[in-house]
Amino acid sequence: MLRLANPALADAISQAMRDNWIVDHGQLRGLRPLAAERAFRGEFLKAKRNSEGAIRRLAQGHRRRGRRSGDDVRLPGQTHS
Asked: Containing domain of residue 32, as a range?
């Protein structure tokens, strides 16, 4: 899911740890020591800023069209009210 939700963060993690974490989430514990590395923190923060910017642009687009956040989100079995 992380690869879909935040591809930039997933790429930063894959560059630091290889792709094995994708199928073995327990390997994400290996990120803890990387937090001390300046290069990894920089990539992490860049991915975070990119993601926040994308969310902000999406919300602004919804507001311009007169929608509230979540108006078009439906859970399985949920109908329009």
From this structure: 2-64
Residue reference for tokens 């990894």: 40
Question: Which regions of 1-81 does DSSP assign to beta strands (E)?
Answer: none
Sign of the dihedral defined by the CA atoms of residues 46, 7, 1, 38, in that order: negative
| Structural domains of the chain, count | 1
pLDDT along the chain (81 residues), means of 10: 84 88 90 91 89 80 67 58 52
CA distance 77 to 42: 42
CB neighbour list of residue 8: distance below 8 Å, 6 or more residues apart:
46, 47, 50, 51
Q: What is the DSSP letter of 23?
A: T
pTM above 0.90, yes or no: no
